[in-house]
Amino acid sequence: MALWEYLAPDRIGFSLAALAYLVLFLLVLTTRSNNVPKSLLLAFISCSFVWALYYAIQASLPYTNALSHTLEVLRQLLLLLFLLAALQQHQNVVVFLLRPYSLMLSLLAAAWLVSCTLMQLPASWIYTGYLAMCVLSLALLEALYRRSSSSERWQYKALVIALAVGIVFDFVLLAESALFARIDTNLWQARGFVFALLVPVLTISIRRIEAWGINVYISRDIVLQSTLVLAAGLYLCLLALTGFYLRYFGGSWSELLQTSFMALGFALMLLLMLSSTLRRRLKVFIEKHFFANSFDYREKWLALTSGLKQIDISHVDRHQKILLVWLQSINYGQGAIVQYRPQGELKILALHGRAPLTEAEVTLLQRYQSQYANQNWQIDLTEPQGALTADLAKDQLKLQLLLPIRTKAGLWGVCIMQAGAEQKLKLNWELRDYLSVVSEQIATLLLLMQHSDKLSENAQFIAFSRMSAFVVHDLKNVKAQLDLTLRNAQKHRHNPEFIDDTFSTLESMQQRLDNMLLQLTTKQSNERPQRSFSVAEIISQVIEQRCAVKSPQPELIVRQDCQLMLDQHRFANVMFHLLDNAQHATPSTGSIKVYMQTTSTDLLLSICDTGCGMSADFIEHRLFKPFDTTKGNAGMGIGVYDAQVFIEQAGGSIKVSSTIGEGTTFSIHLPLQSEVDEEETTYLSAQGTL
Q: Which of 100, 481, 505, 592 has its CA 20 to 30 A from that of 121?
């Protein structure tokens, strides 16, 4: 047979179809599912392969001999059985084939085959019989699509399109053949090409249908190489067309232009096909748009968020827990978090499943810092890294992945990871993107922890400074008592009662000084127990013992006394602060009166003076602000603030009304069953000494 006969269009088309069906058969055969649709699909594909191979080799006309009829009938029968199996759920192929409708369909196909091979039927009758098979196939295909739910139709759409196009093409071919009693040559030559082009669509449709469990896998490298070959073919076709155009319209320069263009075109094609950058970008594009992701990002992100949420950032093992969450995000078992310190030092924050860093690893991390300080570049040591790993022993590098931890200030540290040979992941574009997002999330948490440590340290200094301010304020009160004692000593030094009272005062001041020194050394307050006391008695003692130095002398007006359950010493300090402020604001010719009365639930205290008064703006913005004083160096600015905190802790309230030039009134409400919140008292622990 001459060579040109083997290169006939129909033989080329059926050869391509046979090759496509063979590849599809191997892909489906390697899947792990085992069900009736898969078994019948394999039978249909294998029969289609033999069918296409026969027409690619055999030169006889179709539908004219026994083998041709056998292949056509068997292929149609397997397609019909496959569609019937897809319409219903079956667990066993034998049981399905023994069903009445399966047996009836098989018997009809066998009867038709016998009729076509043994009986001398007219050609139009033969084509009409095959037309009936096509109509039945279309009816079953329509029923399959119609019976699928709305959520499943997306899965079956590609299958319906692939099979329907092939069946309709055969229908047109057979309909024209039945009408004119002969096979149309042009349609027959196109038949092989049509079915070859439908195989990729059939492959995609099979993979979509989840109920069959046929997860066809196609290697990314195969898709890349096929895409490059297809692109090269299209490029050569374009090149040939352009060369033909130049030759036809180029005039006397046609051969020169054509030769130059073809040479440059081939050189450009080879340059592009051998370009590693182009191949890498094309592979990433194919993987992004034609393959499923390696990770279920929703589940991974929820697991990462849940793991990070459970970490106590104040706990000592917080870095260890962060490393565990990081490793679990890609199912690795070994790793470390290393922070870069000044002068090139490395600080290991966490280790899991591995030994401390080797000298080679320390050198590697230092080189990484110098080379990639301004880049967010992830490293996979299973790939060549050039100068980064030069002169370093591979057996000393116990890591695969090196992930940077960056902040706004620059490269903060790195996380190194290692896994067993079976668990290792290739650092492709998808893993890089995923780890970049994870690294940013964890870097934010690490930065938050660092700032939290600084804030905690600053809060300790602030608390100590606050406590020191109250201690200094209390020292002023002790000094005031000493001044009062020394001033009265000139007059009453020979009075035995004065001497006894002086010793009592000195003993009280010694206790207060001891308490202040204890707080300064232990940074904790020496809490006094709450006990019941007479409010009128305490206020009287404050007026007589601590307010007698200045004028005017406060006057207590008791309408009804009561008992309170509070820190007696601190209550006395609060009253002294308010009365002392009133004395500073009131001239010696003025007056200060303290009114005391009770209701069934509250104690009402009013401290009224005829001093200079305060503006509304001062009361709102400065009066209760700590460390804001109008006394210059003579005051600390915390007396009224301390009074407000103490009264509110006891469940009461303090209000101020004042008129400039007329005076001020402090109104205090305290519940008779007052118990200060222990947590709030601890928060302002220094105030317990006042």
A: 100
